[in-house]
Design brief:
25% helix; signal; alpha+beta
Amino acid sequence: MKWLAAFISCMLLSAPALAREITPAERRDEPFDASLPACADPSVLQSITLRFEKTEIRFWNSSLKLIGFERVREVAWRPWGLDYIPRRYCTGTVVVSDGYKRRINFSIREDLGFIGIGWNTETCVDGLDRQYAFAPHCKQAAP
């Protein structure tokens, strides 16, 4: 029993030594500025709408479009800590041109735009994730 107590004590005392140092993304050699637009920002919603329409036409030969957004809200801001790429996770309801309202999960990511310049979005519309990239039901597009 003494050996067990000694082993547990050693593990508890060595735990801080195993922890890694956290350097906020804003203090790196190539820093992030953590200034991302809000979830309901018109530029974000327009980007999502254009990308969705382009994907539907190009890959699925579909004429579906996003008509409008409802109840868009933030779910998480930097959920994994300060030393990761700044991301804002959002959810809401989207009205699709087929007349259905569907849940949408998306993230706004800093410096992940074209050739690493500007912000970018990653989106999943529930029921229209045809490759199951974010299955089940767009759960993997949320934090």
